[in-house]
Write a structure and sequence with these properties.
The chain is of the alpha+beta class. The chain is built from 10 helices and 9 strands. Helix 6 crosses helix 9. The mean pLDDT is 91.
């Protein structure tokens, strides 16, 4: 499937197979799972589990995992990850050398992609970094991805392992609404893919939190050690989705990309959806600004 993915490229079965592949992989990592956070692919599906009446998520065909620096530096952990990947029939996407992208052939025949990411100090941009000299495993440097180690949630999921492996219950550590939103807007601004815009607004609308509750979490992030990237991400959200002088938010690229991904046939319906998306973003950003001002005044 070349180019940008479309809704028809996904299905509930494919999303379930991603959960199965993730559970299969993590089941072999032991305590090292505490050093791994799910940041891409499945987080919207997990975030919506707490909503009373969530919408159906379009789904995913890949799994993005962030490894912390302690795990990367530990030879035992590195060897464990690579050994489990090979033993459970995950294969590197690149032939020869080291790979940060691996794949697993699901029982349906679909290929599930697993990406290994890290936030490496001193490295700029998305570049592949080899970790220890031996072996096949590498990571892709994603600046600021370490935010998820301070902004995460844990969900216990039960899935049937591939190839009649039986059912397993496993804890998944995944990006919370702040961590996911920050990384998703960075991804959208870097590559401009419509699914990123869709995933961002879907998660804000279906994470089970009200706008004031989401805003309060962002205000806390703005006071923490990830304040700079959190503030920068909010600025990007404003630029891409919100009203600005001389232009309504719905006319911006963010709402247009999200609505376009949702395949709304009629222009009137598409514009209505874009207005709604911009309205959500305007409300959230205004709520964050108001709460941040109140917090700043209380501290002075």
């Amino acid at each position: 499937m070349a180019g940008e993915k479309a809704p028809e490229d996904y299905s509930p079965k494919l999303t379930e197979e991603c959960k199965q592949a993730l559970a299969l992989l993590l089941s072999g990592f032991g305590d090292w799972t505490k050093s791994i956070v799910l940041v891409g692919g499945l987080p919207p599906e997990l975030l919506k589990a707490k909503a009373a009446k969530p919408q159906e998520y379009v789904g995913t065909g890949d799994v993005d995992l962030v490894l912390n620096l302690e795990l990367i530096a530990d030879m035992e952990a590195y060897s464990t990850i690579e050994r489990v990947l090979i033993a459970k029939e995950f294969r590197p996407l690149s032939e020869g050398g080291k790979a940060w992208q691996w794949e697993f052939k699901a029982p349906s025949g679909m290929m599930i992609r697993i990406d290994f990411l890290a936030d490496l100090a001193g490295e700029e941009g998305a570049k592949v970094i080899t970790i220890p000299e031996h072996g096949k495993l590498a990571v892709c440097n994603i600046p600021h991805s370490s935010i998820v180690f301070d902004h995460l949630e844990t969900a216990a999921i039960e899935v049937e392992l591939p190839n009649d492996g039986g059912y397993i219950k496993i804890d998944i550590r995944y990006a919370d609404i702040v961590g996911f939103t920050v990384l998703k807007i960075l991804a959208f601004r870097n590559r401009g893919e419509a699914k990123d815009a869709h995933g961002l607004i879907f998660s804000l609308e279906n994470c089970g939190l009200t706008i004031p509750e989401i805003a309060e979490r962002f205000v806390s992030a703005l006071q923490g050690r990830h304040s700079e990237v959190s503030g920068g991400a909010l600025g990007m959200m404003a630029d891409s989705f919100a009203d600005e002088e001389g232009r309504a938010g719905y006319e911006n690229h963010g709402p247009a990309a999200a609505a376009g991904f949702e395949r709304l046939v009629y222009r009137e319906a598409r514009i209505l959806r874009q207005r709604h998306i911009a309205g959500v973003m305007n409300e959230l950003l205004q709520e964050i600004n108001q709460r941040a001002e109140l917090t700043a005044n209380a501290l002075n």
